[in-house]
Amino acid sequence: MPFSCAMRRPVIGAIGVVAALAGIAASSSGALAAGASATSCRTSGLVVWLDTEGNATAGTVFYTMHFTNLSGRTCSVRGYPGVSAVSLGGRQLGNSASRDTGSPVRTITLRNGTSASADLGIVDTGNFSTSMCQPVTAAGLKVFPPGQSAAKTIPFPFSACSRGGVSYLKIRAVT
Question: How many helices (H) and strands (E) does the chain have?
Fold first, then answer.
């Protein structure tokens, strides 16, 4: 059946909507090289959240952790977040996340309302012996934004190693 003009209008309209949304996403990503005037983003001005739709590969599920600036001013982040699994009572479970240094570290400027992100890998605890890992269910993640000494906790239950010595969390630098 040939494409009529009436059929083309909805397709062209849909393409315009997708292009507009892509433009909004690009302008609000906040992933710009930092200017000299941007101060470091403080934990109190950031909303830290996790996209729970993971991407699994070779026994590890990768999730995207977001740092959204709601401080009312422009600030910057640089480096690696500190991340650890925690129990319901807030006790750290096992080792903190190790750094995945495969990507370059950059300073990211965040205008108010924009976000930076970092990928977090969680290794399947079934990859380790039970005695080595001592698997338990974590209640969430304790996250220190790069360069900050105050943390935020993200509720997110997952299987974690309660014993130290096992590297089951991997974090990449913010982008």
Answer: 2, 13
